[in-house]
From TrEMBL, chains A, B:
GO CC list: nucleus
PROSITE patterns, A to Z: BHLH
GO biological process terms, semicolon-separated: regulation of DNA-templated transcription
Pfam family, one: HLH
Localization of this protein: Nucleus
Residue span(s) of domain BHLH: 33-82
Keywords of this entry: DNA-binding, Nucleus, Transcription, Transcription regulation
Protein known as: Transcription factor bHLH
InterPro entries to which the protein is assigned, alphabetical: AIG1-like, bHLH_dom, HLH_DNA-bd_sf
Amino acid sequence: MPIAQSLVLDNEKEKLVKTSEKKSGISEVKKMMALKKHSESEKRRRERINDHLITLRGLVPSNEKMDKAMLLAEVISQVKQLQKNAAQSSEGLNIPLEFDEVKVEKLEGYAGNGSSSFRASLCCDYRPDLFSELRRALDDLPVHLVKAETSTLGGRTKNVFVFTSSGEGKNENTEARELISSVRGALSNIVNKASASAKHTQELYFPRKRQRVSYFDSSSSSS
Amino acid sequence: MPIAQSLVLDNEKEKLVKTSEKKSGISEVKKMMALKKHSESEKRRRERINDHLITLRGLVPSNEKMDKAMLLAEVISQVKQLQKNAAQSSEGLNIPLEFDEVKVEKLEGYAGNGSSSFRASLCCDYRPDLFSELRRALDDLPVHLVKAETSTLGGRTKNVFVFTSSGEGKNENTEARELISSVRGALSNIVNKASASAKHTQELYFPRKRQRVSYFDSSSSSS
DNA sequence: CGTCACACGTGAGGC
DNA sequence: TGCCTCACGTGTGAC
């Protein structure tokens, strides 16, 4: 179709110059209006997208000077990171596992003063005397408890302790190793005692939907 | 600059016709190559951006059928939500406050199925019967407990529950409001009872260093 | 000069 | 058909 050269776009605003002769008139102007609508609506679309990108720029820590692709990459890593954290704090870390576990480890962060801090966790079936046993065990150890946290779900319980060594020094690493192993031993005893007396092994895990959750007691039938 | 009309774009592929006279030949070819480079580079840029958008599509819960703008909106709310959660769980959430507090709120994130989820927290002095009272109170309420978490520090305790409505619907918002207020009422009762019987107000807050921490019992002398 | 990132207008294809 | 979204090539301005 040799309509080429028939249209020249002026640099003036929306001026349409027709150099050919035949079939002039209405259809052309209609096309133009359609095109105009189209380009305006496309502009709106771009605006919408870019507004969202601007908003996102405000949400990521790193400041202005990033192009679109970098921004999106940042957002991606941000989301991944946050999701991981959320998953950790709501699944991995705080929701009791379905198998028994004792973990003791040194925390790399500072403890404030010189002494290092530790994190111990144990996961087992819940039983009423668990907490008093734990307290007794921890009182007997040369540790300084900083934080205790327990979560209970579906008859299982997970307990996390953060503590520092009581500070009666000798070599730091030696002390840390001894402390870790004694804490681990104490907690393991408790967990093993628990599983020895475990007869109420009902609902060790739950089918992920509509599970009935009892708070601090797996046997009471509740409401 | 009257270079206008000097260039006419043919509808043929990449044919550039110069209607003026001088300087024909090589420079035109160069221009063409430059244009080609340009468009290829633009294509790469678009690819980078779109790849990131694809990745993001995989990270948001809601599935495929969203256009770019909606996707970005989703990402924005997702990021905001996760940031809020992260802030909550890393700051205020886990360390018991030094003043009593009851908070119940609707969580904005999805609960998976239709029903919304809620977060209730209360902070008060620890006392031995606290947990059984809490359990009784929660059993009496039409809630479906998803997660329970308690932390204890310096004779104070903070308890956080995440739950969904039991789903016996009516209007969602109405139900949510009623649920929130009844949960708040129940928890407030417990906290107030606690502070009423509070005589052992020793060490309500601690000087941040070398505090003595008791696990689940602020009054017993331990060991 | 090249190169980069952005906005624009336009064609294609889906409802 | 009209309106939408998307990809493309190009114009432009900043280093």
